[in-house]
């Protein structure tokens, strides 16, 4: 039921995103392009099919991946505030991307794969550091985990600034723009790679959902119910890092989606990760797409970074969650 | 695919003499079916040059920063240099987009090329490259005839400044591009060359990169005899105010003792276009007031 409603919402947002933008096309022109009745070289066909449609796809994929990564990190740490950007994992992945670009991975599908691998590596590294800082006898300390995430995030942001300042100062403003999260249409082959990696990550977490429910009872209780807690944690850890790294590689570090979406959904569908994962994927896609459509249009013809919009929503949300619900998931 | 090939063949047959191979300032080649008639400029100095050679009518869109000449402000805007709207550019149906490797993003160029829009990248860090840029803009806009007189005029004015300051003592000059954080021109900046043309020697001329985040201590230690603060406060925000009072306290600096701290709007000097001689004349008068009495 909820899945159907979310599917309808996602479709509606996608249609809205296809019909508005800086080019100021009429609704009938967009409809013509979507129906394939516009000439291939016409403005409406290029804007609708080569710019807006791939961007819609990127936004939906990135939003879904980030929301599911949020569900994964939250179940893993049993902390409702755990989320790729807050944990510093996005910054680690961004560091990987900048490093890959400096090393010469520029264009083409192999370069995209290389960048994704570096981003995954950076995400894993950052997540591992945060985990090692926060781990204490008897589990993860809630506040330490968040502080560790903030510190690791600051460290990797500083490392990015150092690399860029030393190697290529002219690119600094471009990189700062990208660091705020920047959805842009990507080539079809890269889009396919993005989709494959995102689906892989979501699949890993979805198939762990039942065991994650048991983990919520505590590691000891989960072990007594036959869950190999260490193996489960490694698997979800890798999957969430993969999702984060993939999104950062293809659209930059976008914050707070993994915080807002799972949280709202928990009040709608409850704590069961088996429902939470698929609904988070749909709702995350719809949320980020709506945010990006706003980002594309509020200062047209210039464009805002989508991360600005998600941060505007996410920061107050974080405070609210921190004040009202800081109890284990 | 077959249709595309047929289209190319048809184009080639229809206008064999019109097809045009261009090579931009980074050496990248592009093939145009015809001389560009609808150009989008993402670079203020390209926009200025286009109007200066009388080719402004070929521009169908410009960046938000293209504010000179006044006629440029009437052109459709496509957004900032870092974040232009691809949609807005596509909607203008350009047959060529002109960008720069200094201020625009390579990602923007990649995305435009993927959409089949050729991107011509300019790169000007030297006076010689400025002449080259004007000449190329003249070619792109079909106004080659106007290039010679324009470049000659620019060259004459620059030579006149050079002649006026020749054989005079060469003071140490600190040029402040941006007050906070302190940003100064380095070896690869055109400003370093312009300061030399104006008869001064930039104390930051040996810095390895184009623009340097400099420490105020190092600036004081090099004892500049003239300090020029670029004032950006005529723009929309007051962030770029030159704040000369901050420098007045540094009385160990020869420039401050001699009262040679200047705060001037030199945006025309920062932009590599046909207005550079105007800026150069102002700069030379600051460095060598005695030469222009």
Secondary structure blueprint with pairings:
The complex is a heterodimer of chains A (329) and B (293).
Chain A: H1 2-19, H2 27-34, H3 43-77, H4 89-102, H5 109-134, E1 135-136, E2 139-140, H6 142-167, H7 172-179, H8 188-206, H9 209-215, H10 219-224, H11 229-251, H12 257-269, H13 273-297, H14 306-324
Antiparallel strand pairs in A: 1-2
Helix pairs in contact in A: 1-3, 1-13, 2-3, 3-8, 3-11, 3-12, 3-13, 4-5, 4-6, 4-11, 5-6, 5-11, 8-11, 12-13, 13-14
Chain B: H1 2-14, E1 20-23, E2 29-32, E3 39-41, H2 44-52, E4 59-62, H3 86-91, E5 96-100, H4 106-114, E6 119-122, H5 127-140, H6 144-165, E7 172-176, E8 183-185, H7 190-197, E9 201-202, E10 211-213, H8 216-221, E11 226-230, H9 245-248, H10 254-257, E12 261-264, H11 267-270, H12 276-287
Helix pairs in contact in B: 5-6, 6-12
Describe the structure.
The complex is a heterodimer of chains A (329) and B (293). By secondary structure, chain A is mainly α. In chain A, 75% of the residues lie in helices and 1% in strands. Chain A contains 14 helices and two strands; from the N terminus they run αααααββααααααααα. Chain A has helices at residues 2-19, 27-34, 43-77, 89-102, 109-134, 142-167, 172-179, 188-206, 209-215, 219-224, 229-251, 257-269, 273-297, 306-324, and strands at residues 135-136, 139-140. The radius of gyration of chain A is 20 Å and the shape is globular. With 293 residues, chain B is α/β, with parallel strands linked by helices. Chain B has a four-stranded parallel β-sheet. In chain B, strands 9-7-11-12 form a four-stranded parallel β-sheet. In chain B, strands 1-2 form a two-stranded antiparallel sheet. The model of chain B has no long low-confidence stretch (mean pLDDT 87). The A-B interface holds A 21-25, 41, 43, 46-47, 50-52, 107, 165, 169-171, 173-174, 177-178, 184-185, 187, 296, 300-305 and B 64, 77-80, 82-88, 90-91, 93, 101-103, 105-107, 110-111, 114-116, 209-211, 213.
């Amino acid at each position: 039921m909820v899945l159907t409603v979310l599917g309808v919402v996602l479709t509606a947002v996608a249609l809205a995103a296809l019909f508005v933008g800086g080019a100021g096309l009429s609704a009938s022109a967009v409809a013509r392009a979507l129906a394939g009745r516009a000439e291939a070289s016409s403005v409406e066909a290029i804007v609708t099919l080569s710019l807006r449609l791939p961007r819609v796809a990127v936004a939906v994929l990135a939003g879904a991946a980030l929301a599911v990564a949020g569900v994964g990190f939250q179940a893993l740490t049993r902390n409702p505030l755990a989320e790729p950007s807050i944990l510093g994992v996005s910054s680690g992945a961004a560091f990987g991307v900048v490093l890959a670009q400096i090393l010469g991975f520029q264009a083409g599908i192999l370069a995209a794969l290389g960048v994704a691998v570096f981003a995954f590596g950076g995400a894993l590294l950052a997540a591992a550091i945060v985990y090692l800082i926060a781990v204490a006898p008897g589990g993860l300390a809630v506040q330490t985990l968040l502080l560790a995430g903030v510190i690791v995030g600051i460290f990797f942001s500083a490392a990015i600034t150092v690399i860029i300042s030393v190697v290529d100062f002219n690119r600094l403003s471009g990189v700062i723009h990208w660091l705020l999260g920047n959805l842009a249409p990507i080539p079809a082959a890269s889009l396919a790679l993005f989709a494959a990696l995102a689906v892989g990550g979501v699949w890993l977490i979805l198939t762990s959902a039942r065991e994650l429910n048991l983990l919520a009872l505590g590691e000891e209780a989960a072990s007594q119910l036959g869950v190999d807690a260490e193996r489960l944690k490694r698997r979800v850890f890798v999957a969430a890092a993969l999702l984060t790294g993939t999104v950062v590689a293809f659209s930059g570090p976008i914050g707070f989606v993994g915080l807002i979406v799972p949280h709202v959904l928990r009040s709608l569908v409850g704590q069961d990760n088996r429902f939470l994962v698929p609904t988070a994927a749909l709702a995350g896609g719809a949320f980020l797409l709506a945010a990006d459509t706003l980002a594309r249009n509020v200062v047209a013809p210039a464009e805002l970074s989508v991360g600005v919009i998600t941060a505007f929503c996410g920061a107050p949300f974080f405070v609210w969650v921190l004040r009202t619900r800081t109890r284990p998931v | 695919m077959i249709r595309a090939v047929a289209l190319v063949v048809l184009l080639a047959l229809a206008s064999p003499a019109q097809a045009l191979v261009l090579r931009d300032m980074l050496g990248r080649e592009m093939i145009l079916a015809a001389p560009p008639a609808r150009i989008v400029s993402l670079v203020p100095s390209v926009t200025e040059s286009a109007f200066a050679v009388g080719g402004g009518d070929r521009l169908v869109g410009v960046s938000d920063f293209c504010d000179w000449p006044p006629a440029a402000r009437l052109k459709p805007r496509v957004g900032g240099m870092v974040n232009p709207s691809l949609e807005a550019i596509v909607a203008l149906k350009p047959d060529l987009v002109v960008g720069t490797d200094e201020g625009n993003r390579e990602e923007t160029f990649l995305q435009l090329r993927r959409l089949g829009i050729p991107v011509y990248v300019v790169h000007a860090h030297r006076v010689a490259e400025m002449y080259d840029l004007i000449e190329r803009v003249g070619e792109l806009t079909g106004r080659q005839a106007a290039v010679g007189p324009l470049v000659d005029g620019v060259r004459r004015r620059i030579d006149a400044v050079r002649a006026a300051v020749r054989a005079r003592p060469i003071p140490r000059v600190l040029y402040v591009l941006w007050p906070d954080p302190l940003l100064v021109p380095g070896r690869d900046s055109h400003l370093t060359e312009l300061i030399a043309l104006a008869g001064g020697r930039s104390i930051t001329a040996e810095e390895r990169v184009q623009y340097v985040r400099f420490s105020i201590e190092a600036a004081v230690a090099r004892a500049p005899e003239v300090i020029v603060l670029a004032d950006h406060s005529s723009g929309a925000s007051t962030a770029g105010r030159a704040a000369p009072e901050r420098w007045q306290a540094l009385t160990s600096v020869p420039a401050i003792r001699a009262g040679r701290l200047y705060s001037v709007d030199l945006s025309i000097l920062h932009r590599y276009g046909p207005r550079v001689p105007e800026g150069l004349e102002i700069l030379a008068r600051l460095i060598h007031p005695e030469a222009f009495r």
